[in-house]
């Protein structure tokens, strides 16, 4: 498989075919180990995984500092990576959530703060993390466009945006990529968002391409998650009760197919997402998150998996869209639908 992917056509950005989501290194998924996280980032660069994804809200604020420090100590440093971060989910230093903020003045101040924490002069891909329904998207993207003109940002992105929002944003300034949840477990975007990406020449950056870890087969029940893991908090209904039981049945089918092909279930699930890249002209670069070197190395193995059309069909038959139980978030109110 190719080692790079180009996101977007009007404002193209070439990134590693597989990226690295850094959120879990600082927030949401249990215990943190900054030394291991740093080793993971350095190992990613060694393996050619140079598309790094963070956000100001992760930590909050600490993940950008972690990523920046890791880059500062890595061979090649800043020039070796395509660096993506996000604004819009406003949090307080103690971790509280203020709300979604897309006001132009906030866009500018958030960018300056991210640049400082990351220790860089320019951000390769700057996303609006969630759409602010109280601010016209044209105003938010207008402020983001000013950041490009000022040389602080190279390319613009949106996260969890609807087809209509994407169209309106793209009319103000070319959108390079849309980030949203996409995996065998979450295929909603295929109905309305994917056609717009194909029409406008916008790339896709899937987060949680492993179904928040479910598709790796490493989670056999809620008890496998630490007490401080947000997947046990009620925030993710797919990890609760009967929904979890139903979803684990689907995972077992992926495990059977993976065993037949001599791969791990996570590699097979990632290979399915990677196989989407180029269809209808849409570049796809998934960003599976991990905070450990061994899981990173397993994920990179997905790049060597070649799935036939029969394999892809078998995976989709094993995990039918309608069979996945539970909403992807308990509170979908901030998702632009």
- What structural class do helix, strand and pairing data support? alpha/beta
Strand order in space, largest sheet:
3-4-5-8-9-10-11
Strand content: 15-25%
- Computed CA radius of gyration, to the nearest angstrom: 19 Å
Ends apart, CA distance between termini: 33 Å
**Order of helix and strand elements from N to C terminus:** EEEHEHEEEHEHEHEHEHHHH
Helical percent range?
Answer: 25-40%
- Principal-axes shape call: globular
Q: What average pLDDT do the residues reach?
A: 95
**Main β-sheet: number of strands, strand sense, barrel status?**
7 strands, parallel
Number of helices: 10
Poorly predicted runs: none
Number of strands: 11
Overall description:
Keywords: Oxidoreductase. One of its GO terms (molecular function) is oxidoreductase activity. Residues 18-318 form the NADP-dependent oxidoreductase domain. The chain is built from ten helices and eleven strands. The chain has helices spanning 34-46, 62-72, 104-118, 137-149, 163-172, 189-200, 241-261, 265-274, 293-300, 309-318, and strands at 4-7, 13-16, 19-21, 51-53, 82-87, 89-91, 97-100, 123-128, 153-159, 175-181, 203-207. The model has no long low-confidence stretch (mean pLDDT 95). With 337 residues, it is α/β, with parallel strands linked by helices.
